[in-house]
Amino acid sequence: MVAKVRVSTVKYMEKVYVNGTYYPFYPKIRQKDISSNTSDKFIDTLMISNLMLKGAGGDYDGDQVSVKAAWTQEANIELDKFIKSVSNYIDLGGVNIRVSTNEAVQALFSMTKILNEDKAKIQKPIFT
After folding, report:
1. Are 59 and 25 in contact (CB under 8 A)?
2. Which of 39, 57, 118, 125 has its Cα between 20 and 30 A from that of 80?
3. Which run of H or E residues covers position 108?
4. Whole-angstrom Cα distance, residue 52 to residue 49?
5. How many angstroms separate the CA atoms of 50 and 105, rounded?
6. Mean of the per-residue pLDDT values for the chain?
7. By three-state DSSP, how is residue 52 classified?
């Protein structure tokens, strides 16, 4: 699966100019954060769109992925061409690999999931 990513290692970012260069996703770390426990400010997860799961052979059971980054200008130009090509959206059989059949399932799960701290708030039904 090939996709463009924006490397994000911090939870909060801001738009800044540093020495005349614009950075739209600059880490929001302050002087007071240095030499203190900042473990809650960093992230180590990868978020993939549900539309990409079929093409990657993924599902919802906590699969592990690794990311390989292309840093050269030539590699990024080649990546842009591939992302815009039809072969990025269909498999060898000509079937669309960007499907949204699991979107409803994921949404229903997220809306009906009961967290442990909320179990005490649930009332028994009036009618049996």
Report:
1. no
2. 57
3. helix 103-112
4. 5
5. 11
6. 76
7. helix
- Among 51-55, 75-79, 88-92, top mean pLDDT goes to 75-79
Instruction: Calculate the CA 49 to chain-centre distance.
Output: 6
**What average pLDDT score do residues 45-51 get?**
69
Q: What angle do CA 73, 42, 4 make, to 5 degrees?
A: 30
What predicted TM-score, i.e. pTM, was given to this entire model? 0.40
> What single DSSP character describes residue 97?
-
pLDDT above 90 (res 73) = no
* Residue of 35, 59, 51, 47 whose CA lies nearest to 11: 47
Q: Could you tell me how many helices (H) and strands (E) the chain has, helices first?
A: 3, 2
Q: Calculate Rg over the CA atoms of the chain.
A: 21
Beta strands in the chain (DSSP E): 13-18, 21-27
CA distance 29 to 57: 37
Pick 61 or 45 by higher pLDDT: 61
Alpha-carbon distance of 4 to 79, in angstroms, equals 8
